[in-house]
UniProtKB/TrEMBL annotation:
It comes from the Bacteria. Residues 114-165 form the RNA polymerase sigma factor 70 region 4 type domain. Belongs to the sigma-70 factor family. ECF subfamily. This is RNA polymerase sigma factor. Pfam families: Sigma70_r2 (PF04542), Sigma70_r4_2 (PF08281). Residues 8-75 form the RNA polymerase sigma-70 region domain. InterPro entries: RNA_pol_sigma-70-like, RNA_pol_sigma-70_dom, RNA_pol_sigma70_r2, RNA_pol_sigma70_r4_t2, RNA_pol_sigma_r2, RNA_pol_sigma_r3/r4-like, WH-like_DNA-bd_sf. The keyword Repeat does not apply. Keywords: Sigma factor, Transcription, Transcription regulation. It comes from Ureibacillus endophyticus.
Amino acid sequence: MTNCLSAIYEEFNRYIYHLCLKLTRNTAEAEDLMQEVWVKVVRNEEQVKQVDHVKAWLTTITMNTFRDRYRKNVRRSKYMMSQPETLDVPILDLVPNNDISTEEQIEKDAVTKIVQEKMLQLDGIYQKTLWYFYVDQYSLAEISTLMKVSIGTVKSRLFRAKARLKEILLSDDNIAEVVLPA
């Protein structure tokens, strides 16, 4: 480590440690994070000479390193459960299955059919707005271009259409029981 890096380390060591501690809320993790930060600083020693605000540069490195570690942990925890050292189940059983069950698909289809039937009771302009937004998945800007109105008008039509559709759905006693179970 050069004299320049030694001076930077001496000056900002405590600051980086406290920032790491604030981010991780754990002394062991803060020390690990701090070590990663200083490794990155040493690896990018050439850039130090070009930096005008060293403290801001170090803060950015610390924040980015923390985010990277957090994302890595989230990805890892999504696919792996906490298990003892020896696994009694195949590793593929630990991978989440994002497919919906047959019962959920039937229920989803039934609800979709009910909503589409009730949409027919709406005024044409509201039907079109809901259809463009939720079924065709157009953006508000695209809908405003298609319907030749402002984005604000599209937003208000969407709001009114949803409110009216909710009223229609809740006025039907059979549907109200399914939509809002007691």
